[in-house]
Design goal:
Blueprint: H1 2-17, E1 22-24, E2 27-29, E3 33-41, E4 44-52, E5 55-63, H2 72-83, E6 90-96, H3 101-105, H4 131-143, E7 149-154, E8 160-162, E9 165-169, H5 174-186, E10 191-195, H6 208-213, E11 219-223, H7 232-248, E12 274-283, E13 288-292, E14 299-300, E15 305-310, E16 316-321, E17 326-332, E18 336-337, E19 342-349
Parallel strand pairs: 5-6, 5-7, 7-11, 9-10, 10-12
Antiparallel strand pairs: 1-2, 3-4, 4-6, 8-17, 9-11, 12-19, 13-15, 13-18, 14-17, 15-16, 17-19
Length: 350
């Protein structure tokens, strides 16, 4: 009898901490369950999974494929969907597996072949706009409105190498900036860019993470992967970073993760992260063939040659120099370069 009473008390306590159903994005997802579907948006559809935990907690949204040619995050979110146990999860995980389906199948760098627009430059979007603007509007109204924290996951396109790093937006609002930076540090990626170059106006927020920030919600950009490759190592690093973030948000422990995946999650990076106060672009002043003279991850000094541009006959047109000291975080790796295009992005330490 005593055993029965104890079990009834445990059952009542479990019910007390269980979540209400997740209602949003056109779905009704019961606590402790998973729902995956293709969400119609205009003339396209977005693959979305909602893992609605058994227990209360924050809503974390992870998004891949804002740029359809950046692949590692797509595979990472598939792995996470198969890894997280809804019956042990605290909170809700929303996975937008591929936000730019047309760009993905069109094999386009950043843009959609439907309207030639960059999804990460048209937020908060328009209900009556082009397809890309409709997707941005949907994600603003249906995804960001339901989330508490957001990670927008990117990679280097087919023409770009990069050192893994995180953008932690700075809104010059002390509480939000502190919360966002703590969230960024939790990923375990030691390179963090403190980015304050986006508008603070919610009506012209431009990018996806900044749309979350202008609505008071921490929104990070995670950059892992390069050259348009489908790298298992890069996908594993993304999975690790996302699990770290979920642990920081107290969404999971070992029981909430299937198999040995939790072993990939670590405590936030033990070394003090490197904070960069801004990115400085080195732009070509001519059109021609670009030759990089440095690699991502290298430290450069002001005035150092970082690249050169030749004409089509192999004659030197210009040598590009670093205007500041810092670390090379991103670089064009393929030969074509046009006047005004950035060749090298240098992170300036704080």
């Amino acid at each position: 009898m005593r055993y029965l009473v104890i079990m009834m008390m445990v059952s009542h306590l479990s019910a007390a901490f269980a979540q209400a159903p997740f209602v949003g994005i056109g779905q009704h997802v019961s606590a402790g369950t998973v729902q995956a579907w293709m969400q119609p948006v205009g003339q396209t559809a977005l693959p979305i999974t909602v893992i609605h935990g058994q227990f209360s907690g924050p809503v974390l949204t992870l998004t891949a494929g804002i740029h359809g040619d950046e692949f590692p995050a797509i595979f990472a979110l598939q792995q996470l969907a198969q890894t997280i146990r809804a019956d042990q999860l605290h909170g809700t995980l929303v996975l937008v597996h591929l936000a730019n389906l047309e760009g993905f199948h069109g094999r386009r760098i950043a843009l959609s072949p439907v309207d030639e627009k960059n999804l990460n430059r048209v937020f908060p979007g328009r209900a009556d706009g082009t397809l890309t603007e409709q997707i941005a509007y949907f994600m603003t109204k249906q995804i960001i409105s339901k989330t508490d924290y957001l990670i927008d996951i990117h990679s280097g396109s087919a023409n770009q190498t990069l050192l893994p790093h995180v953008y932690s937006p700075v809104m010059h609002q002390a509480a939000l900036d502190e919360k966002t930076l703590a969230f960024a540090k939790s990923l375990g990626i030691p390179q963090i860019v403190l980015y304050d170059e986006r508008p603070h106006d919610p009506a012209r927020s431009i990018s996806y993470p900044n749309t979350a920030q202008t609505r008071g919600k921490p929104g990070l950009t995670l950059e892992v992967g390069q050259l348009g490759l489908r790298s298992a190592e890069d996908s594993a690093l993304i999975v690790k970073a996302c699990l770290n973030a979920m642990r920081h948000l107290e969404m999971l422990d070992a029981s909430a993760v299937n198999g040995s995946a939790m072993d990939t999650a670590t405590e936030p990076h033990q070394l003090k992260p490197v904070l960069y106060r801004k990115l400085v672009e080195v732009r070509s002043t001519v059109t021609g063939i670009f030759y990089p003279l440095v690699k991502v991850g290298e430290t450069v000094v002001a005035g150092q040659a970082v690249g050169r541009v030749e004409n089509y006959f192999g004659q030197l047109l210009e040598t590009l120099h670093a205007p500041v000291a810092g670390t090379v975080l991103m670089q064009k790796e393929t030969p074509p370069i046009r006047q005004g295009e950035s060749t090298t992005d240098i992170g300036v330490p704080q």
